[in-house]
Amino acid sequence: MTDSLPCQTHPDLFFAERPAFLDQARALCASCPVVDLCLAGATERAEPHGVWGGQIFVDGAVVASKRGRGRPRKTAA
Q1: Which long-range contacts (CB under 8 A, 24 or more apart) does 30-35 make?
Q2: Is 71 among the domain residues?
Q3: Out of 13, 39, 53, 60, which could bridge 25 as a Cys pair, Cβ 3.0 to 4.6 Å?
Q4: What is the DSSP pairing of strand 55-58 with strand 61-63?
């Protein structure tokens, strides 16, 4: 059964650095039959990073979105 779960068929998406890939992983979680168990387990373990149960974890906490790596863009003031 676990071979057909989204995280098993596309594991790289769930630990990607690019926010767009993490959003794809979150979308795949929406149809997963164990999404609630996955989120509960990840919260209990304080997973350090990745998409778990449709949520993004950074440093063991759920965040709304993850900023991409690198220096922030300069904006005209």
Answers
A1: 30/54, 31/6, 32/5, 32/6, 32/7, 33/5, 34/5
A2: no
A3: 13
A4: antiparallel
Q: How many domains does the chain fold into? A: 1
Q: Quick check: is 58 in a domain?
A: yes
Per-residue pLDDT tens over the stretch 17-70 = 999 999 999 999 999 999 999 999 999 999 999 999 999 999 999 998 776 667
Is residue 75, in this structure, part of any structural domain at all?
A: no
Residues in a beta bridge with 12: none
Full domain range(s) for residue 16: 2-63
Q: In whole angstroms, how large is the CA radius of gyration of the chain? A: 14
In a domain, 77, yes or no: no
Minimal CA–CA distance to 25: which of 60, 36, 17, 59?
17
